[in-house]
Specification:
Elements lengths: L9 H15 L13 E6 L2 E6 H6 L18 H8 L2 H12 L2 E2 L2 E2 L7 H12 L8 H24 L2 E9 L2 E9 L5 E10 L5 H15 L1 E2 L13 E2 L1 H10 E6 L3 H10 L2 H4 L11 E4 L1 H5 L8 H11 L1 H10 L7 H6 L1
Parallel strand pairs: 5-10, 10-11
Antiparallel strand pairs: 1-2, 3-4, 5-6, 6-7, 8-9
Helix pairs in contact: 7-9, 12-13
Length: 332
Amino acid sequence: MNSCTASQCGRCKWTRLGAKWLTIFLLDLLNPGYGSWISVRDDDEGWRLGCECCSAAGNKGSLAEFTVTTYDGLQNCNFRKHQSNPNHKAAAAEYVTCHRVAGKVGFNVAPPEEFFAELIQSILDGKSSCSDKKSAKAVWCLHESIRAMDRKFLGQAEKITLFRDERKARLALRFRAVKKDLSVRTGTFGQERNFGTGASNITEATVNIIKRLCTSFQGCRHNVWGIKAKLNKKLWKHIRNHVFMMTVDAASDEVLSAEMMRCGRLFGKGSTLFKALQFVLRDKTHASRRLSWASHCHICITYIKLFGARFIACARHILPERPPTKREITKT
């Protein structure tokens, strides 16, 4: 508040009068312990005030949609008018009477910690974890909490490395990031399915995967309250400016896709996707499958030690372009 230079600041007004309003505008006048329907949110969208129960019920209006931010909007008369509205009364009654758990009131009362602990253990054991609606929503909550921690770390990372792999029309993308204090975090951006073939489609799929992680509440299950997913543009820009290394398969379209990401002309979007990308590494396992027999003597030496010179001499006539695969060796 001391650092605010505005003559009429809504946030400063709330700091001065908020405690008083919270004791006046209650969810239930007969039960003051349930608290006030006035709530304040301070997140990526900024500081704003609204009505918690009307927001949960999906009502319309500035307080229901949490869009009150101005000095003039925070008025005692506005709050009284909203509290006397029939739609607010109905939402507050449902909020209080229909969702009371162990003395707590609200739609957002979470299951106990033991429920989540059992769910995590079943996931680790490979058991079905989405057998009912409640479990499916809880799994999504766990998924979103992990992504929230990933978003927070990536937003503070100094260097980010990407690991991309493709198999059977699926593209997986992982990351490893480091902050200024040298703390490291490894995680998964996600995957894309049936994205097509070619370097352009692979590049577009990679962009979609990263944008999904940068979007809060993406893919919310049973979204009865109409929560809207929103892209964190600040995080998206930060990731684009701090990816400095990428590991891909040695296939030509994979390598070309990586080159497109650090060249604005190849990317074709008017700007470079990853401005700090310096190193593009090829997956050694896939790269070795594309080497000829004469390109690396260590491959021939290894096969001679394992299978003998006679096998290698025969195999070179059968498979002149590359070493035999594990399946081909088994058949032989």
